[in-house]
Specification:
Layout: H1 3-8, H2 14-17, H3 21-29, H4 37-50, H5 58-74, H6 80-106, E1 115-128, E2 134-143, E3 154-159, E4 170-178, H7 191-197, E5 200-206, E6 211-213, H8 221-243, H9 247-257, H10 265-273, H11 284-303, H12 306-311, H13 314-332, H14 337-354, H15 362-375, H16 383-399, H17 402-407, H18 418-448, E7 450-452, H19 455-480, H20 485-510, E8 516-518, H21 524-539, H22 548-560, E9 567-569, E10 576-579, E11 585-587, H23 594-604, E12 609-611, E13 617-619, E14 623-628, E15 631-636, H24 642-647, E16 651-654, E17 675-678, E18 689-693, E19 698-702, H25 704-707
Parallel strand pairs: 3-5, 11-12, 15-16, 16-17
Antiparallel strand pairs: 1-2, 1-4, 2-3, 4-5, 4-6, 7-8, 9-10, 9-18, 10-11, 13-14, 14-15, 18-19
Helix pairs in contact: 4-6, 4-15, 5-6, 6-15, 8-9, 8-20, 9-20, 10-20, 11-13, 11-14, 11-19, 13-14, 14-15, 16-18, 16-21, 18-19, 18-21, 19-20, 21-22
């Protein structure tokens, strides 16, 4: 007897006759949906690990998991409700254990400070930039002034002069390397954490073209295979961009090979602002299209071979061929993290066909999520994972509805004329785009600080063009490239014409008024509430599911009223800005370090970056004064006028002037009794700081403290 049966057959007790009886009966009636929450608990455990400020011992997750599981088994028959809670705890602890273990497996040295000098190593991968240069992923064997034990596992170096080496080449070059950067705003994207889980310990640029040097062969077979695959990717990229040298070819190559370096900034911005950025990176959409095309092609061929199809299960043979094709696409796509996740989801679906199980089901998605998080626990905190699973879960829940299935023409045995089938196809496309867009919108807004105002319109054009034109022709070209580059070039040129149509759509839509909707940075609490409410809504089937709308509504309320900072100071002190009453970002030097300023503007939910002199009294560009929240505030760039700022202000924000400042100078005499927030040049070890001007006192928040003492912060 299962635990669900034991609970369901429990004798009538007080809880059944209490006010909670309807909830109890609803919970028991949905026993078949309980297993779906295992993925939610597993993800909760992973998330709790990344939310810690100190690294836990590696044994803690194992003890909690095995302890909760063992105790649950012991109490399973005597106290089934307690056992059920313990099993939920065991899934949560297992997610925590998986995250701890996954972090230990990728732990490798990272640069602690900038390094300039000679770098010698072996090229693992190359991303051409389309202008003769590119980015090299190098496994270093020697770096000036670093011992062998301090060498990062990998470094990424941008080379601006060709010829660019190929994967497997040994290189020697003079370069400037820096540790992966800290977040530029508290709560922002942690570049160092992302780099850590990629094994990337340093990022920089070369001063001159690299020198090819002899290098011993790799000792690991996986590295040899990886280098061979990377050379194949480069060759395929060269064929595509030779056949289609424009932006269409560059985006097509990104879709086929995952190499995005040749895409122009304007094209990338247009794709992002129009809601089509998901077409550039290889994701679940592309993997599903490739697998679906191969599956359909094999089924079609077998339909013309009745003797073969009568003796062999055509559906399973097609699924096996699609699985092999998806694995090949994973390799050609460069084994990128989103591509790996897409392969796991698609592969489990194809395995479901091979084992005669439902292909599109929430249990399959839950299993996929657990497998992905076991392999890549850090994927949980990335927008790619969040948006992919949000879209898939929402779409499966949508098409579980009999009404939706009937309108979309998905019910078996229904016969309709051509007009009704066309209407059903249009309805399915609209419903899919709307639901997927609504499900992913909170995660896109949280991660990128913006939403696409016309994403539905652009996707209605771009997705069918991609599915029925670009992907089939590009897949054919990729197969032909193995035997004839000229024939493959014809296919790629034709596919690039379709991609040019997609780019034209993106450019047109991105130019419409309101195409980009800025969203101010909201708290993770709001995002978690919306996530929990959405899961409650789609996992359960009975009327109590609608209680999830309350959690979603509360999350939206919190997201609509974020606590925004009023002053910003970058970690190196070179950029200072304040939030205006109109919501715009006003920078002391708006022409400097646009990347940092764009991140700050994204936090405020604005596209406007203006000169601070418009809202403050600025004297010579080095000192600005204003009053806000009952405080006299002075903002100075450099220390040349710091004493003057301190004499007339209660809050002083002091940046850096690298031309004149020195690291860690003493505090001026006049600053002894006032609040001084200071960053001085490269010598300062802290990160960016934000200040919220509360009526009681200024509230400061830095990026260093919340990151804690973790492997990626050391």
């Amino acid at each position: 007897m299962s635990l669900a049966e034991e609970i369901g057959e429990e004798p009538a007790a007080a809880p059944r006759r209490s006010i909670g009886e309807p909830l109890y009966r609803a919970f028991i009636a949905e026993q078949d949906r309980w297993r779906l929450w295992s993925a939610v608990f597993f993800a909760t455990g992973c998330g709790s690990y990344f939310g810690m400020v100190e690294e836990p011992p590696v044994w803690l997750g194992a003890v909690l998991t095995l302890g909760a599981l063992g105790l649950g088994i012991v109490l399973r028959s005597r106290l089934p409700w307690v056992a059920l809670a313990l099993f939920a705890c065991a899934w949560t602890a297992a997610g925590f254990w998986s995250a701890v273990t996954g972090t230990r497996l990728v732990d490798a040295p990272m640069l602690l400070r900038p390094v300039q000098g000679e770098v010698i190593g072996r090229v693992l991968a190359v991303e051409p930039d389309g202008r003769g240069g590119g980015r090299l992923l190098i496994i270093p064997t020697a770096i000036d002034r670093l011992t062998a034990g301090a060498l990062p596992a990998r470094v990424r170096i941008t080379v601006r002069q060709g010829p660019v080496p190929r994967p497997g080449d040994g290189v020697r070059l003079r370069a400037s390397l820096s540790p992966p950067s800290l977040p530029v705003v508290p709560g922002g994207h942690d570049f160092a954490r992302s780099a850590f889980f990629q094994g990337l310990g340093g990022i920089g640029f070369a001063y001159a073209r690299p020198e090819i040097v002899p290098t011993p062969p790799p000792s690991e077979i996986f590295q040899t295979i990886r280098e061979a695959v990377e050379r194949l990717r480069l060759d395929l990229d060269a064929v595509i961009r030779a056949a289609a040298p424009g932006e269409g070819g560059a985006v097509l190559s990104a879709m086929v090979t995952g190499l995005r370096g040749a895409i122009g900034d304007q094209t990338e911005t247009a794709m992002r602002d129009s809601g089509l950025a998901h077409l550039i990176s290889i994701s679940g959409l592309h993997m599903t299209m490739v697998a679906g095309l191969i599956f359909g092609a094999v089924r079609l061929v077998m339909a013309f071979l009745p003797r073969v199809s009568d003796r062999w299960p055509g559906r399973k043979i097609a699924a096996l061929a699609a699985l092999l094709g998806a694995a090949a696409y994973l390799a050609v796509g460069g084994f990128a993290v989103p591509t790996q996740r897409a392969f796991v989801m698609t592969g489990l679906g194809l395995l479901a066909i091979l084992t005669d199980r439902p292909v599109l089901s929430l249990p399959l998605v839950a299993s996929s999520a657990i497998v992905v998080l076991m392999l890549q626990p850090a994927a949980l905190i990335g927008p790619s994972f969040q948006m992919s699973f949000a879209a898939v879960v929402a779409l499966i829940a949508l098409y579980e509805s009999p009404t939706v299935r009937r309108l979309a023409g998905l019910d078996a045995g229904t016969t309709r004329g051509l007009p009704m089938r066309a209407a059903a196809w249009v309805f399915g496309l609209l419903a899919t785009s709307m639901i997927a867009g609504a499900a992913t919108a909170p995660y896109a807004a949280y991660a990128f600080g913006r939403a696409s105002g016309y994403g539905l319109v652009s996707n209605l054009v771009a997705v069918p063009v991609t599915g029925f034109w670009i992907m089939p022709v590009a897949l054919t070209g990729s197969l032909l490239s193995l035997v004839s580059e000229s024939a493959a070039g014809i296919c790629f040129a034709f596919a690039a014409r379709g991609m040019e149509l997609v780019i034209a759509t993106a450019t047109t839509v991105a130019g419409w008024p309101g195409a980009v909707v800025p969203v101010a940075g909201f708290s993770v609490t709001a995002l978690l509430l919306m996530t929990f409410g959405g899961l409650w809504l789609v996992i359960w089937r009975r009327a109590w599911r609608w209680a999830g709308l309350a959690a979603i509504a509360l999350g939206l309320v919190l997201a609509a009223r974020p606590a925004l900072p009023d002053l910003f100071l970058s970690g190196d002190g070179r950029s200072i800005a304040l939030r205006g009453f109109d919501g715009a970002l006003y920078a002391m030097t708006p022409e400097r370090d646009r990347f940092v300023l764009d991140q700050w503007a994204e936090k405020l939910g604005t596209l406007a970056i203006r000169d601070m002199a418009e809202v403050a009294h600025c004297d010579g560009g080095d000192l600005c004064r204003l009053e806000r929240a009952g405080l006299r505030i002075a903002i100075t760039r450099g220390r040349s006028r710091l004493a003057e700022a301190c004499a007339a202000a209660e809050l002083v924000v002091a940046g850096a002037d690298p031309r004149r400042d020195v690291a860690h100078p003493g505090r001026p005499d006049g600053c002894a009794t006032i609040t001084l927030v200071e960053r001085t040049g490269r010598g300062f070890g802290g990160g960016a700081v934000t200040i919220r001007l509360d009526e009681a006192r200024p509230v400061m928040e830095g990026v260093v403290g919340p990151r804690g003492d973790r492997p990626w912060t050391r």
